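Progress report, Aim 2. The chain analyzed during this reporting quarter is listed below.
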Amino acid sequence: MAQVFLQYSTPRGVVLYQTVAKVNGVTELRDYALQSAQSLITAPSLEDWRHWTVHARDDLGLELFALPFTSLLGKPH
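Predicted structure tokens for the chain:
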């Protein structure tokens, strides 16, 4: 797979931008994005992750998938 990019965004816009060069397909990229988002969520922080999304894009800027952080957070208590 060519170079891909992960964009971590909120409704206010892109907050973090990451280049990922060594993945072998979309499944591996999705696993990487899941692990990356999970590490952000579980790190000590006051951030409200409910409105965050990680977008995976190819080197042409086309979106491969979007992963809302809410899919990792579960139901609110």
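The beta strands are 4-10, 13-20, 53-57, 63-68. The first strand starts at residue 4 and ends at 10. These observations will guide the mutagenesis work planned for the next reporting period.
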